[in-house]
Amino acid sequence: MLDAKEVAKHNSRKSCWVILYGTVYDVTDFIDSHPGGANVILQLAGKDATVEYDPIHPPGLLEETLSKSQILGPVDSSTILKPPPQRPASTSPNTTSEPENPISHTPLPPLSNQLNIADFALTAEKTLSPKAWAYYFSASDDLITKEHNSSAIASILLRPRIFKDVEYVDTSIKLLGTQPSSLPLFVAPAAMARLAHPDGEAGIARACGKNGILQMVSNNASMSLEQIASARASPSQNQWFQLYVQTVREKSNKILQRVNETGYTAIVLTLDAPTPGKREADERVKNFGNTTSAISGEGVANPSVHTGEGLGRALFAGTSPNLTWADLEWLRSQTSLPIILKGIQTHEDALLAANNPLVSGILLSNHGGRAMDTASPPIYTLMEIRKYCPEVFDKVEIYIDGGVKRGTTIVKALCLGAKAVGIGRAALFGLAGYGEEGVGRVIQILREEIETCMRLLGVNSVKDLGLKHVNTSAIDHLLYKTPSYKTNVTRFVEGVKARL
Amino acid sequence: MLDAKEVAKHNSRKSCWVILYGTVYDVTDFIDSHPGGANVILQLAGKDATVEYDPIHPPGLLEETLSKSQILGPVDSSTILKPPPQRPASTSPNTTSEPENPISHTPLPPLSNQLNIADFALTAEKTLSPKAWAYYFSASDDLITKEHNSSAIASILLRPRIFKDVEYVDTSIKLLGTQPSSLPLFVAPAAMARLAHPDGEAGIARACGKNGILQMVSNNASMSLEQIASARASPSQNQWFQLYVQTVREKSNKILQRVNETGYTAIVLTLDAPTPGKREADERVKNFGNTTSAISGEGVANPSVHTGEGLGRALFAGTSPNLTWADLEWLRSQTSLPIILKGIQTHEDALLAANNPLVSGILLSNHGGRAMDTASPPIYTLMEIRKYCPEVFDKVEIYIDGGVKRGTTIVKALCLGAKAVGIGRAALFGLAGYGEEGVGRVIQILREEIETCMRLLGVNSVKDLGLKHVNTSAIDHLLYKTPSYKTNVTRFVEGVKARL
Amino acid sequence: MLDAKEVAKHNSRKSCWVILYGTVYDVTDFIDSHPGGANVILQLAGKDATVEYDPIHPPGLLEETLSKSQILGPVDSSTILKPPPQRPASTSPNTTSEPENPISHTPLPPLSNQLNIADFALTAEKTLSPKAWAYYFSASDDLITKEHNSSAIASILLRPRIFKDVEYVDTSIKLLGTQPSSLPLFVAPAAMARLAHPDGEAGIARACGKNGILQMVSNNASMSLEQIASARASPSQNQWFQLYVQTVREKSNKILQRVNETGYTAIVLTLDAPTPGKREADERVKNFGNTTSAISGEGVANPSVHTGEGLGRALFAGTSPNLTWADLEWLRSQTSLPIILKGIQTHEDALLAANNPLVSGILLSNHGGRAMDTASPPIYTLMEIRKYCPEVFDKVEIYIDGGVKRGTTIVKALCLGAKAVGIGRAALFGLAGYGEEGVGRVIQILREEIETCMRLLGVNSVKDLGLKHVNTSAIDHLLYKTPSYKTNVTRFVEGVKARL
Amino acid sequence: MLDAKEVAKHNSRKSCWVILYGTVYDVTDFIDSHPGGANVILQLAGKDATVEYDPIHPPGLLEETLSKSQILGPVDSSTILKPPPQRPASTSPNTTSEPENPISHTPLPPLSNQLNIADFALTAEKTLSPKAWAYYFSASDDLITKEHNSSAIASILLRPRIFKDVEYVDTSIKLLGTQPSSLPLFVAPAAMARLAHPDGEAGIARACGKNGILQMVSNNASMSLEQIASARASPSQNQWFQLYVQTVREKSNKILQRVNETGYTAIVLTLDAPTPGKREADERVKNFGNTTSAISGEGVANPSVHTGEGLGRALFAGTSPNLTWADLEWLRSQTSLPIILKGIQTHEDALLAANNPLVSGILLSNHGGRAMDTASPPIYTLMEIRKYCPEVFDKVEIYIDGGVKRGTTIVKALCLGAKAVGIGRAALFGLAGYGEEGVGRVIQILREEIETCMRLLGVNSVKDLGLKHVNTSAIDHLLYKTPSYKTNVTRFVEGVKARL
């Protein structure tokens, strides 16, 4: 048993110990390879860091990362002023009517008063820690693409038909031909769910299970992929695993092996973030506490070192920036699961993917506006595919995410050819404060909105939704025009002129 | 004579009595079939509920709904602390110059100071109860369609001509060939007028009678259809009855029989709301008082039960969600009155209606933005009809409602082919506080605005209004383009290219 | 000499006397024919009304209107508590650096600090009486056209050229072939200038004379047309007279005779206001003081009586609503001056005017947004003419007004074919507080902005401005499309399709 | 040694002495030819004017301007109450973590907390003097073009591609074929840098040198061109000199001789400002302190004298307004350096420039919105060139500036054909408070944003950026349409119609 006062002496770069879950670790040699940066560790050097460490690191990470000699043994809890917190248990499902946010300890509105996704966002902003809110809310640069994701699809009009018997509507679909879902809705991969609630990604899994919809599990989840898998309602509940390929490819091989063994039913390969976007709200939270950082003269001298901080950049550490189409062969060699490409943003890439026999589906996404600012809303990409290469719809399933706050948004994407639509922030905002229950309520709200929308359209099942139900005139002219398209029109005009 | 203290003991789901207009009713068996939900009744169990009950239920309803054994007899008024209120009498027409709102008892601006519809809305917001305001003001989801209804038509430009003798203008029209109206304006069906003023729908009827315009009477009026009919200025005053067909069809048969017998001159069949839209402002009023409601875990378990509340959903209870074109035959079998279809939102349905011999007119409407959010403004539908199937104008009369706040709006719709234009909220806002007088002032304002607009256009009569008086270029490109339209253009370009 | 206490007894509809400029008038018989309504007089009955009467009535009006027997003689000034104000003298031109507003007596910013038209508007809002500000600022309904007038032309882009010698620029033009102007700018007819400053229309005349530009004098000026004429800097200063034809045509004949005799050099016939627009800000000022007005039940009973008040409606009284093209013959019979038609808002009317040999010019105007709300900005009309009937430019001179706040606005209109551009409110805002000096500063500011704009365009004289200097793409698609234009395009597409 | 009390007596237009850097000057004869106006000098007459004079005048100017007899000799510093300030030394590079603004002496945020250009603007607004902020921030008239510069390019969408190896990206370019730059970014010529920080233009030079990018040096720099040249990191650092040709051509000849001798590597001839724009914010700062100025009656009398003041107009004094293409021959006769034309705003001028053998490059610029308001954003001009005369890209290099706040903006311009993109205000805002370090941070931020953008696009080097990476549909229709283009389309439609 180590004395906390002894630990406290190792509080510098030369010798740096920390207490985590009652055990003392010597992280001196690890400081400079910490994805989150050295400063974060040094601020906690010699102290109990459990509260800060816990919600953003999956279990097992310490054991993976450190050698046995760096695990110094248990601390004598009587020697520390504040006793080390226990890893928090998941809240029980039978929440009371005045639920209390386990993170901020402020009272939450009754869940039945949360009428829409915007209500959940409002509550999340009030109850999350500033750091967590900044991480979830932030998007790249000036948030133009983030806002555009919502506004573009809102400008599409719906065309309700009359005299249709809509007593019953069937919202169910089958993903990849065999995986049933009660809704054309899934939870898109989003990192660090335990920042919102101790239920974390397992809570999302339970809510998806109860509601019969797909969860895509983030490579950067704050729980292990096995923990999240074990939260399935039944073995038949579908979870797909999102993969960031690591520069050290062997790490990804190991992850894929675990994924293969744990019952995940597809791989979602993320391609829209070969480098992290600049999410200033996230970076700013770090900066504000960071008064000791010197003016980065070194940054000027060595301009290739990007200077931003923030959780987004930290999570990105180790991700491979040099994937090419050839790497699909490697991925197939590591797993026989269906492969989905996430982050398609042009019809050209959609067509390349559709023509690649290793690809089963594509997820049109701009990373929720968190990668390239002023990238197209994914609904534009969907319409671009229809305009230039509609054969893609016959070859792969097309999913879409970004900016989804309403059932009408989901139905519009289906009318234009999407197979299913993902929510990212909406699920996390449901989780914030309420845990699994909140995610369930979010799904319930969207289910009711989808059903109402389908009924008002006069449609009984998802497969009956089509182009005739949407008026896209407000954005038709905003789609990309290929140089050849422009040339053809010009040549056409020129040609007819020449003949007159 | 029952003692109120005895009544007060029956205040639970097991035994539930209420006092209404001095009589005690046992509603224990009715609680779960109450369209407005059980909670509303249980909150008033054992009490005098007249004030809450009165403005949203037509007279006669209790007798229709309850059996004789459930009518327990008169209460001894001396035993209740607050004496039961009398059914309020209609305010006398000779209002003083400083009228007092009979609902909120706040002073109202002199009626002559109300210069436009926006003034009335402002006053209504201040004087109505929060519940009534929420019910009238609310629209679906994010109110996009509600706002769009107004903004779309505001972006159409008017084209005044010069050197026209406009000393006299004739604003009169004939509806359905024989029913005269002094204006191309009608009051569209809107429910629950007594929430605004005790004059209720009868007050609207009197104002319409004095001004010589048509009233469409809501199926969900807060007065009986006979009461409203008896407010006619003369037997020749036209009232059309709006019908929500009930799931229990026999109920609708009975209503139609009463309609046939009471001198209504057309049936308006509502088709734009086979399920209620999600009017969150309305639902929220309920929710805010509803702190005891548990987190709706059941809702999650049984997702087909929609969880929203609100007056809009309550009124919808019992409405048939499964009408088809075949039901027009049933309707014709129940009445020989002309049939108008309300809620046409596409040119396809307009054409189907026009080609149906049972249909005399269509009312282009998105339910004032209260059904599908992001549905088209009705002016788009009107223009769509002209673009794709102008023969509709020759076969049925076309009416339009939604977002009307100005005479110019009405004139523009006429220029584009509408026969008459309806106001919904505007009439209710006129009623709020002022009663019949307010509705009269609203009609007077619109009459003056219509006349001024026609004079400035250089037009003497409604029939002279035409396409040449409006510039629709700001919205022409926003209309729905049929797939065949797009195909034709593409094929055209392709074809000419092929020949060059 | 009459005693004021005696006058004070005649304060009712039965016997109504007022004191004006020290003389007592019996206006009992005149009350009901007062264009501004009876109420205004009755509120001043028995009192000295000079302050209220003076700024909105031209001199000589009393003598014209009343018979000799109604002029009762001078009042004994010692008998009235407040001595009657003298008709105020024009302020002397050598204003001090801290000028004082002669109306509100508040200090004004130094004139050299007023850098643009918006500065003057801001000062005018602060220094004018609420009634005067409302009259000048107001426009019809929702002010959509008023705002559009400015925004439409602001969206046209200018195209500066380089390497042009712009040391000298010549901004002068000749109107109607012979009337020189130092700028392509004129003061459009605007009523009631003495509401802004005692200098009134004569002050505008002096400023125009010193700056060598045209003044159009309003039919509703607050000074006599002879007074305004006598303020000319020289006999060669051009003033055009704006005419509202009166229902009693003989009145207009008399006015035209005076115009002919006083050296005006053209007649501007106003055609965009056969009925007054609904300027609610103007009407509201009246209403607010008007707490005794009863609810206008009569208005409901007699809907053809429009209920609005306000200075705008009062000034309109007596104006003929039934002019036709045939009346041009009458006008020619009364004057040999060139005739300009004001208020052309369509290319159809522009073409009719151009083909009429009695017409020398047309003024594209929507009355500053004060007549029809949602009418086109005049720049659209100008572009419409170029699109559909450019021959108009060869047959008549085209002037334009509405929303002019910047020199760039003026230059853009010239590029598109206007001969000269008018300012209305801008001149009145200059007059407000500062009098003639302020109008001069307004003209000076616009002169400098025009010169700067021309230099930056690389243009030396007005005649060199052309289509190549403006990019109108932002509004090209918003112009009116004639039905034949649409038909042609459709027929064209149909036709080519048929041949493929 | 002169006594300050003696100097103080010479405080009038008759005899006007000032103390500058400890020396007394007699400027009596110079007052009326002072470009900044007489008033500014008279306010400082008889006083030590060093603080006011220093930041806006380059050294050596006094010696150039005044004769020896006007230099009266040193002042006895003991005789002045406040000792004369020394010319401030450049701040040392090793700034502390809480830097202090040398101008406003308020604490600055740590430089590493400045995450984007907007952060620097915010800090600059707080720390600069009102006069300096107004001069930098201001733009012409209503700032429409200034805002449009940013918004137009923000509405262009980027099209990220997937599966590209973007581990390495190369942002370097070569200007004019031989001058390397580490980024496609340069600092555009901007005047009066010492208003922001004593480091002035030399500080910008050092930051550009360390970062390997081009600086264009303003003709109106607040330091001598030799001082700025001597701040080069090495002889190979590129600086281009921006020239305003003077009316007294001999002055420009002398400047060009100095430029030729000091190692500048190109001449940037400014053509977008033959007269100064109306920058009201700048003019207003002067006006507010200027309560003694009389109402400018003279201005009215002599309208060709523009009345505005402000630093912008003062700096313009002496600039030639009459350059033509022929003057390029003169310029070539004075220098053999490559000639760049700055201020091209139409495709017509771009084509003329491209076909002129004396021109090596063109800088598309509207002077940062400071010349003609409502001129096109330069990105429109770039697209116009591609539409109408793409051969320009083959003949000259095209640079662009205006509204650049993000790396994405820069990359978009490159995709559309620009060679490099300039920042003006961004560099000055970096300089404000922080000096050279701040400029370095600005460049570093943009470098990182450019690199991130290129990686997310899937592009490895600048030359790979192309039209396929941008979707310009949001602005395609806003480009100038030549009359011939319109005619062709019309003729085309007419022609085909004729054949049907």
TrEMBL record, chains A, B, C, D:
CDD domains: FCB2_FMN (cd02922). Residues 76-109 are annotated as: Disordered. Keywords: Flavoprotein, FMN, Heme, Iron, Metal-binding, Mitochondrion, Oxidoreductase, Transit peptide, Transport. Residues 109-475 form the FMN hydroxy acid dehydrogenase domain. The keyword Mitochondrion applies. Residues 1-76 form the Cytochrome b5 heme-binding domain. GO terms for cellular component: mitochondrial intermembrane space. GO terms for molecular function: heme binding; L-lactate dehydrogenase (cytochrome) activity; metal ion binding. Its EC number is 1.1.2.3. Coiled coil: none annotated. It is an enzyme of class 1 (oxidoreductase). Its main location: mitochondrion. Its cofactor is heme b; FMN. Gene3D superfamilies: Aldolase class I, Cytochrome b5-like heme/steroid binding domain. In the N-terminal section; belongs to the cytochrome b5 family. Belongs to the cytochrome b5 family. This is L-lactate dehydrogenase (cytochrome). It comes from Terfezia boudieri ATCC MYA-4762.
